[in-house]
Write a structure and sequence with these properties.
This protein is of the alpha/beta class and 128 residues long. It contains four helices and five strands; from the N terminus they run ββαβαβαβα. Strands 1-2-3-4-5 form a five-stranded mixed β-sheet. Helix 2 packs across helix 3. It holds the Pfam family STAS.
Length: 128
């Protein structure tokens, strides 16, 4: 992480109580990757399925491969735990590309806005 850059995590439960919007801003490089994901786990420890978790990465300025692996590991753990997880990022952006290159999944669903991801029937912006 560059000097002066801070990873910010903001968690907001929607009014319907059916979903949680988690916005990450800043940079996730190797030194901060595990700290950031541990903070996500702590922030969501009291949340129970079948809650939809919208993980909004649209304000990330940089994402290292270690950060992508940590985020994908967090996502996999939450999905295995019975949650539905929706990613938000620029479909053509660097963050999405790093996630796709790091992901073991054949398809990675990414929504272009948090509003689209929060709509229950919204189709994803991209699908591989």
């Amino acid at each position: 992480m560059k000097d002066g850059t801070v990873l910010k995590i903001e968690v907001t439960r929607t009014a319907s109580e059916e979903s949680i919007h988690v916005r990450m801003a800043g940079e996730i490089d190797a030194p901060v990757a595990q700290y950031g994901v541990a903070a996500l786990h702590r922030a969501l420890s009291a949340v129970t399925p079948p809650t939809v978790i919208v993980l909004d990465l649209s304000d990330l300025k940089a994402l290292a491969a270690a950060g992508a692996r940590s985020i994908l590991g967090f996502a996999d753990a939450r999905v295995r735990g019975g949650f539905e997880l929706r990613l938000v990022a620029d479909p053509e952006g660097v963050v999405t590309e790093i996630l796709r290159l790091t992901s073991r999944q054949a398809a990675l669903l990414v929504y272009d806005t948090a509003a689209a991801a929060l709509r229950l029937a919204a189709p994803p912006a991209t699908s591989d």
